[in-house]
Each structure stands twice: as structure tokens, then as C-alpha cells.
Specification:
Protein name: Energy coupling factor transporter S component ThiW
Helix content: over 70%
Low-confidence stretches: none
Largest sheet: none
Distance between the termini: 15 Å
CATH class: Mainly Alpha
Shape: globular
Keywords: Membrane, Transmembrane, Transmembrane helix
Order of helices and strands: HHHHHHH
Structural class: mainly alpha
Number of domains: 1
Pfam families: ThiW
CATH topology: Arp2/3 complex 21 kDa subunit ARPC3
Mean pLDDT: 89
CATH architecture: Orthogonal Bundle
InterPro entries: ThiW (IPR012652)
Radius of gyration: 15 Å
Number of helices: 7
């Protein structure tokens, strides 16, 4: 029964993340994935959260023509899930999502973009100014949403312990 519940919530997170990331877009920012990464870090744990972020990004890439970097959210999702598992500190989890998706993923995705896509990028730091503002806005929103969910006891437990 628990396995079915895990996969059901995973599917819901993927669908919700895909829809929100397609609808909620600011100029040069799509913070909904980062919001979902923070909420998923608390509710899903690192493995399922990373899978949800990767599959949601893959759907955005395939169905809405986003570039390969749309799949980079799994890095921050995994790291923030690990931090939440170890510390149970929501705001440290928010900061980890900002650093994981906003900086680490930005640097790491330079290499597949130059190798597989043929992008002519000047530096591995190229994506940081694009990723970091979105990660900051989305992670803060996710932290606030998760705090409110917990405060009002709408959802007061983790879904999985992966």
C-alpha cells in the first residue's frame, strides 16, 4: 500500500510541477519547479523528489520546446531532500535548493549544453545569472507554502521515507 501511495504522490508532483512551470513564468524566470522542489524535499525525500523534478523537466523539454537545461532541477531537488532528511530544517532546505539549482546545476549543465547541444557558451558560470534568481524566488515561495501547509496542518507528515 505504501508503494502505491509513493508512486501516486510522485505522479501528482510531476503533473503539478509541469502545469505550474508552464503557467507561472516571469520574465526570464520559471520559479514553480523550485517551489515544488522545496515542497517535495519535505514530503517525498531526496530520491522521489529528484525523480519528480527530472521527469517534470523532461516533460517541459519534450512538450513545450524548452532546452535541455529544463531537466537540471533534479540536482537541487536531490540535495534539498538530503538536507531536509538530515536536519529537518525547512529554511536550510530552502537555501540548499537555491544553491543546488541556482548555482551547482547551472555550472554542471554547461557541459552537456556544449557537448551535446553544441551551444557556444563563454564559461561554466554562464547559466548562474539565469538560474539563480529563479531558484531564489521559487525556493522562498516553496518554503512559505510548506510552512503554511505545516502550520495549518493541511499536510503534517512525510509521504515517503526513501
Amino acid at each position: 500500500m505504501m508503494k502505491l501511495r509513493k508512486w501516486t504522490f510522485l505522479g501528482m508532483f510531476i503533473a503539478l510541477s509541469f502545469v505550474l512551470s508552464t503557467v507561472i513564468v516571469f520574465p526570464n524566470m520559471a520559479p514553480a519547479q523550485h517551489m515544488m522542489n522545496v515542497i517535495g524535499a519535505v514530503m517525498l525525500g531526496p530520491g522521489y523528489n529528484a525523480l519528480a523534478a527530472f521527469l517534470s523537466g523532461g516533460l517541459r523539454m519534450m512538450l513545450s520546446g524548452r532546452p535541455l537545461v529544463a531537466t537540471s532541477g533534479w540536482i537541487g531537488a536531490f540535495l534539498s531532500g538530503l538536507v531536509y532528511r538530515k536536519t529537518h530544517c525547512l529554511w536550510l532546505t530552502v537555501a540548499t535548493e537555491m544553491i543546488g539549482s541556482g548555482m551547482i546545476a547551472a555550472v554542471l549543465y554547461y557541459y552537456p549544453m556544449t557537448a551535446f547541444v553544441g551551444a557556444d557558451l563563454p564559461s561554466p558560470l554562464f547559466y548562474i545569472p539565469f538560474f539563480l534568481p529563479s531558484a531564489i524566488v521559487g525556493a522562498i515561495i516553496g518554503g512559505i507554502v510548506q510552512h503554511l501547509l505545516r502550520k495549518h496542518q493541511i499536510i503534517n507528515q512525510k509521504i515517503t521515507h526513501n
